[in-house]
Amino acid sequence: MRIYTFWVLLVCIAIPGKETFSRSFRPVKFSQAMVVAPEPYAADIGADVLQKGGNAVDAAVAVGFALAVTYPQAGNIGGGGFIIYRDADNDVYALDYREKAPLKAGRNMYLDEEGNILENASLLGYLAGGVPGTVAGLWKIHRKFGKLEWIQLLQPAIELAEQGFIIDEYLAGALRAYAEDFARFPSSRKIFLKEGPDSLYKEGDRFIQKDLAATLKRIARQGADGFYKGKTALLFEQDMQKNGGLITREDLNRYEAVWRDPIEIDYRGYKVHSMPLPSSGGIVLAQILNGVEPYDLQALGHNSADHIRVFTEIARFAYADRARFLGDMDFVDVPVEKLISKPYTRKRIARINWFGAGDSDSLLSMNQLTGESPQTTHFSIVDRWGNAVSSTYTINGNFGSKVVIEGTGVLLNNEMDDFSVKPGVPNMFGLLGNEANAIEPEKRMLSSMTPSIVTRNDSLFMVIGSPGGSRIITTVAQVISNVIDFGMNIRQAIEAPRFHHQWQPDVIFLEDSGFSRDTENLLKIRGYKLQKMRTIGIANGLMRANHSKNWQGWADPRGNGKVNGY
Ligand code: DON
């Protein structure tokens, strides 16, 4: 308590008064129900389902399948993810539909005989994919909570795949950026590249995916079996065998989505419900929020050097704990209760040296590095009854492994890279891991996805989540804190410039625009290393301000999303 209390007091005296944020930057509002999705077709489809009497789960199913067609960078049926669901009685559920390692996977599968990493093997091509969970997840939650017919919810996605849709600038740019990778795999080339000399799809072109439409029809008719059994599973196995992949029909048959106990975090009178293992999201979020709670962040000033320092020093040890302790709890013991307890975090804070930058190496030493090119996606939904879905799902990198499974139209994830492929060697997000996150058959790789729902006095307050790999957790923490600590509306909270620290590399990442030279200098003087990043996260969220009847929503302008509702 000693040093940090002294330091906070000093700052509070130096900067008196509270910050207020003008409400003139207005979010989108609807009185009854709302979808915030990362892509406009999907947002409209979700809103239509809600308007036709569907509930939040129905809308989530329709949005999830639509994104697999219209947002192939991240929307998927060949990947996996997580849902936090809160029903109108305020019961909260966590659904894990994360991918798992194939039965034939092993801890050294990405190493050569000398123990060196086989370059790109966990990122590109057939070996990079985990057994997908998305269809099982959407099927499972729909069976328990859905209201409308399953088949009806897949119909819009089927039509978009079969008849095509118009490519926008955003998708055209993404297809262009990965054209070389698609060209490596014949099954991907014929879908994502056109025939002829100018093979690139352009803005305004119609994009048709017949194989995907046929797979979606099988899922519409047979439920999850349309993916995990029968023709789709056979096509999967055949293509895997032909190309050196490991996933078999047995892997697909055995896949199950699992209900887990959500992580609950008390934060300044609000309750944040978030994702437990195999996502690190809820645990690290708990450590960050528990850590910043003793500080009067308003007094420090939003995005001031001191505000950034408080977050940074707490994130430093939270991410160090992530690397050390976290992995799939069906395989390893993790002291979750301890890690998310307030006394534990307070003890860690007491050891922080507030007079200069902290030292990541002293927390636990491992190598460092970082990578980029992320893509995952999040949607937030509330229906007229107050049921809410917060779902983040992914194929990991943009377009996953870049492999389309022949004859299915399904893009395979490259989620195997989220395992600790070799202890001490960072993954594409620069994240380190060790034994707890080593590869084992049927184990789920550790995630950072943090779909979250915030309640207050048992009422729904906020639904939030983001893509961004390791940056997801700090993104969600900052949006929640922007609302609760700084009184921002959802638009301001999402648009505000973001920063990030993840223990290793020992660098504060700052979004390109939005931090003044003064702030940067104050951090540098304290000994922090800074690195600019174009953007951090793409948060899509909604909330109901105190005393308001309306839902307010905002799709992060860092992405291409849309809010719709009624
Ligand atoms: O599960 C994870 O944490 C990562 N596979 C998420 C990847 C991601 O967010 C990429 N996004 N922008």
TrEMBL record:
<dbReference type="InterPro" id="IPR043138">
    <property type="entry name" value="GGT_lsub"/>
</dbReference>
<comment type="similarity">
    <text>Belongs to the gamma-glutamyltransferase family.</text>
</comment>
<protein>
    <recommendedName>
        <fullName>Glutathione hydrolase proenzyme</fullName>
        <ecNumber>2.3.2.2</ecNumber>
        <ecNumber>3.4.19.13</ecNumber>
    </recommendedName>
</protein>
<dbReference type="InterPro" id="IPR043137">
    <property type="entry name" value="GGT_ssub_C"/>
</dbReference>
<dbReference type="InterPro" id="IPR029055">
    <property type="entry name" value="Ntn_hydrolases_N"/>
</dbReference>
<keyword id="KW-0865">Zymogen</keyword>
<keyword id="KW-0317">Glutathione biosynthesis</keyword>
<keyword id="KW-0808">Transferase</keyword>
<keyword id="KW-0012">Acyltransferase</keyword>
<dbReference type="GO" id="GO:0006750">
    <property type="term" value="P:glutathione biosynthetic process"/>
</dbReference>
<feature type="binding site">
    <location>
        <position position="469"/>
    </location>
    <ligand>
        <name>L-glutamate</name>
    </ligand>
</feature>
<feature type="binding site">
    <location>
        <begin position="394"/>
        <end position="396"/>
    </location>
    <ligand>
        <name>L-glutamate</name>
    </ligand>
</feature>
<keyword id="KW-0378">Hydrolase</keyword>
<comment type="subunit">
    <text>This enzyme consists of two polypeptide chains, which are synthesized in precursor form from a single polypeptide.</text>
</comment>
<comment type="pathway">
    <text>Sulfur metabolism; glutathione metabolism.</text>
</comment>
<feature type="binding site">
    <location>
        <position position="418"/>
    </location>
    <ligand>
        <name>L-glutamate</name>
    </ligand>
</feature>
<dbReference type="GO" id="GO:0036374">
    <property type="term" value="F:glutathione hydrolase activity"/>
</dbReference>
<feature type="binding site">
    <location>
        <begin position="447"/>
        <end position="448"/>
    </location>
    <ligand>
        <name>L-glutamate</name>
    </ligand>
</feature>
<feature type="binding site">
    <location>
        <position position="98"/>
    </location>
    <ligand>
        <name>L-glutamate</name>
    </ligand>
</feature>
<dbReference type="InterPro" id="IPR000101">
    <property type="entry name" value="GGT_peptidase"/>
</dbReference>
<dbReference type="GO" id="GO:0006751">
    <property type="term" value="P:glutathione catabolic process"/>
</dbReference>
<dbReference type="InterPro" id="IPR051792">
    <property type="entry name" value="GGT_bact"/>
</dbReference>
<dbReference type="Pfam" id="PF01019">
    <property type="entry name" value="G_glu_transpept"/>
</dbReference>
<dbReference type="InterPro" id="IPR055262">
    <property type="entry name" value="GGT_CS"/>
</dbReference>
<feature type="active site" description="Nucleophile">
    <location>
        <position position="376"/>
    </location>
</feature>
<dbReference type="GO" id="GO:0103068">
    <property type="term" value="F:leukotriene C4 gamma-glutamyl transferase activity"/>
</dbReference>
